[in-house]
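JOB MANIFEST
job_type = single_chain_structure
chain_count = 1
residues = 632
[input]
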Amino acid sequence: MTQTTDRAGAAEARAAAAVPDETGQFSHRQIMTILVGLLLGMFLAALDQTVVSTAIRTIADDLQGYDLQAWATTAFLITSTISTPLYGKLSDMYGRRPFFLFAISVFVLGSLLCGISTSMYELAGWRALQGIGAGGLMSLALTIIADIVPPRQRAKYQGYFMAVFGTSSVLGPVIGGFLAGQDQILGLDGWRWIFWVNVPLGALALFVVARNLHLPHRRNDHKIDWPGALGLIVFLVPLLIVAEQGRTWGWTDPKSLVCYVVGAVGFAWFFLAERSYGDDALLPIRMFRNRTFTVSALSSIVLGAGMFGGILLLPQYLQIVHGSSPTVAGLQMIPLVGGIMLGSITAGQTISRTGKYKYFPLVGVALMVISLVSLSQIIDADTSVWALAPLMVMLGVGLGFNFQPIILAVQNAVRPTEIGVATSSVTFFRQMGGTLGTAAFLSVLFSALSDKVPAAYAAAQGTPAFQQALAANPDQARELQNATAGGGDLSDTSLFQRIDAVLAAPFKDSFSSSIDLVMLIAAGVVALGFIVLVFLPQLALRTTSGIQGQVAPDGESAEAAGAAAPTSVVTPTAGAATADAGPDRDLPRAGRHEATDEHPTGRHEAVSEDQPTGLQSLPADHLPQGAGRPRD
């Protein structure tokens, strides 16, 4: 009786503290408790990007720094992108908890300081600090869920992340537009609350994570790859700067050329450092011998470019052509967000039930291509938002089919001790693709506008309706002439919402046809992702979490501790094809422990409840509460 009571008490204590049992397993209740903190952190980072982009012009006007407003975005982008792979590697070495807590703390501090900025220079500096925190909130949340949930069950939990991502995409413009539109709230400028709203949410996330996230960690001695980190900074900073500023400077401007040269030197430096550090490298070169990792990295770059480049312009179209406010445009994007959530949840539930993930990215890419091509055919100045809605849903479903299955495939294919660096690397490649795609598509858009706008107005000059509108609105005619002369400076498109509809029509027609061109190019870029993803191996999904896999004895692959079949050889049943037949492609061979179709987690994985598990081979101070003290 006493033993039963003790066991019940220990189970309740573990549930309250959200630590695993003696086998390293978490209950659904514990997973959901931890998930609350992870989702709050991800929500903060995702919301911040859309909130600030909506209000940046109001902020720049108030701080008298209109010409510097781009740096508030660029500074955040640089630090969040660079810090992403650093979080992944360091958390593999020293544990997730301290770095996730650090990321939340830095993000909250940066938000607080952004709200008290008195100049655009200050705001850019504090946004850079915010970005350091945001880089960890995104990648570590996906890594931690891999630590506590086996791949076979993980997909259904990852659907929550897509729900948060989608919700923030809608709420961001709504909240940003509302707060930026308030002259004062509690005696302070309304836009400052855009940053301060992060503080209580961040404090709540910090409390939930600090109280509930206790993951056993098997610390490994490693050298920290500082030369590689420095090389990455030298490579990425000029690349990201020219991606953001190149359209303004000119792609062949001396400043742009300097960025290219410095970036090339940084890349060479980074590559040499990664080769010399081997397994201790920030991004070990040998990981590219893993076919799943390489395919996922390449597809993330391509899909990131097409995905973010295409999605970015839909709100632009709604605001400039339809005259929607940022708040209304955010609400009009609900069909896209609904599609993302539907696709993610459907993919997650199906993968958990069947164990098959490969076909979701392929189907998702096909849906994205169809929707982007269709959008390029129907978008014009008079297209109804309701006509766009079904295609936005289709595009969203395609995105939902791609986001999490690719992350899941990578996490399943690498050693449990490398989940952090693998997850952060794929996230990093997607960010880079999005940044480069956005820069490229905006350049295409403005290049097309510079040709189409003058031609459209030249053609309109001969129409009686246009001549009558010019005569009736001489002041607007002068504004229009200044804005469109030689292609014009179209940085302030609000002019075309103020002037007579007849005078604005040629510009809106030109903008719509330019959007059509960008959508068509985005479809072509995304189609390249289909070709890449054809080579993604379908591997059996592990039935053990990252924590359980990490306790495999030294010298054995993760499979010997119950990992799945991401090995170079998978013994098929009669008539079945191998999942990936190539030497050393995904994980080292596990000899007689290799997985089969009948035993997808390895022949020797099953252990009865009363037998010792790999977790019991750890020192006591590495075990969860109830069996010892948690490491982190």
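[summary]
The radius of gyration is 26 Å.
DSSP finds 21 helices and two strands in the chain.
exit_status = 0
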